[in-house]
Amino acid sequence: MPVGLFRVCLLVITAIVNHPLFFPKENGTIPENTEEIIQKMKEREESLRLEQLRLEQEIADQEATQKALEKAAVVVEENKEEKVRWDMWTALSMVIFLLIELWRQDFQEGNWQDIGGEEDDMAVLGKAFKGVAFPDKAVLASFYEKRILGTTGDMARMREMVEGFADDLLEALRSVCNRDADMEVEDCMGVGSMYENWRVRKPFVCDLIVPFAPPEPYCFRCQTWCSGDSFPPDEQGYGTIKVCRADEDATGCICDKTKLGEDMLCLLHSQVSSTRPSSEMEDLLCFKNTQYLDADQVMKWFQIAVTKAWNRISHKYEFDLSFSLLDSPGALKIKFKSGKSIAFNLTPVVQYENSDVYFISHFPRSSLAAEIPSSTHWFLTFAVYERRFIQLVSKTLPANACHVSCLQILSFLHGKQCSLTGPSGLTNYHLKTVLLHLLQARPSQDWAPEKLEARLQDMLKFLEKCLHEKKLYHFFIGNGKVPAELGFPIIFQRAEPLNLFRPFVLRRDIYRKMVDTFHEMLRNMSALINEYTVHIPLAHANGIRKEPL
Q1: pLDDT, average across residues 359-374
Q2: Would you say 328 and 345 are in contact if contact means Cβ atoms under 8 Å apart?
Q3: Mab-21-like HhH/H2TH-like domain: from which residue to which, for each copy (predicted)?
Q4: What would be the CATH architecture of the domain defined by 125-248+281-534?
Q5: Which ranges of 258-348 would DSSP assign to H, the alpha helix?
Q6: pTM to 2 decimal places
Q7: CA-based, 20 to 30 A from 329: which of 30, 206, 449, 477?
Q8: pLDDT score, position 84
């Protein structure tokens, strides 16, 4: 019984305790905020989802970056392998290029002038000769006798007169110059067509070159485009002349190449000798603020000196002397009271070392040096060696050889054509270069007088070939077959061949004019020659056949 009563009391007490009125008031609001809790849980879930997406994106970006790095590493590795292969191919290409270049030089040295055996090439060429009636031997002989042969005596008398006057004029020039400050003038030398006996067109003009040297203690140090230093392609054939003291750099002193301290003194060179005021260099005809000889300054000095010399000796002569051309500073003209005149060129030059190659300031009446890079660049002339070569070869040729006759006839035809259609880039120097090549290539017996017609055809065909290829090489530069008797400097024999037609490669208008003039000359050749040919007997004329080439 007590146990049962205890159980009933316990149940009552439990019911009272668990009655809702006994819960705090705030606990009774839980059911009212359920939606807010759910909303917060959703927001939390959404933020967690966004955070998860962000983390997944970062992981994906890291994986992409890793893949990019791995790919870049692979590309770098491949580039390294490709570079190694490229370097190998580059080296191999350079080796092949050098071998080809060496072969080309050897081939040019041995074959660039071996044109004597190219009879087939000569036959293939000559397209411009189709339909052209070439004058035969009788017509050429008559033309040469009537128009050209009679001028030889006139040239000899004119050379003798001009040389005598030039010697007197230069002697007077030396007397008016200051030996301690002015340039020292040497004896003049005759060069060109008048002294090689092939000039045909009047007026005859003698070309004289006058070597000069600086006063003591100075000297000239010459540098050419083939001396080892790099020269641009447009400066090939040129050189520079530096005015130095005779003892400068002779001992290999570095005082001019390094800057010494104020308390240091070179024991080999005094302070006076090491300093060169600009006025002193200008007095030595150098370009402003340099040690390089200025061609324009030299020509101004030479003109003034010649004028002073003539004023000193003019009373001895019964003629007047004047400068004839403004664009040719060395062009002089002797005017007699009778109205006749004699023209000649007196051009100062500088000797290259101990040879007969000379630096020339300008070419009278020539377009060879029409575009000189600057007034400190001097063109090299080989005129003395050209004259000697012709004289040397002439000794081995048959009597009355036709080599000079060929050049005279071709020069005459070219001059006449230029007088009709205007001047072109083709000059008499180009024609002489063609003859020099053929003289070296053909045997002596091929220049017998009866072979004038054949050799003249060879010259025209060789010139046509050069015009077609735009290549006419200088005879001496790069020619390893120059006779040793000439004593020609080896440095120019080993140089790259100099293409005289190179200026026309880029100037297509001049090249086109030159080609057109050549073709017009061929078409007018017979008419020009017949115009100056004496009458040929009818019996002889009936035996003449004019066959087109």
Answers
A1: 65
A2: yes
A3: 404-477
A4: 2-Layer Sandwich (3.30)
A5: 271-274, 278-283, 295-313
A6: 0.71
A7: 477
A8: 59
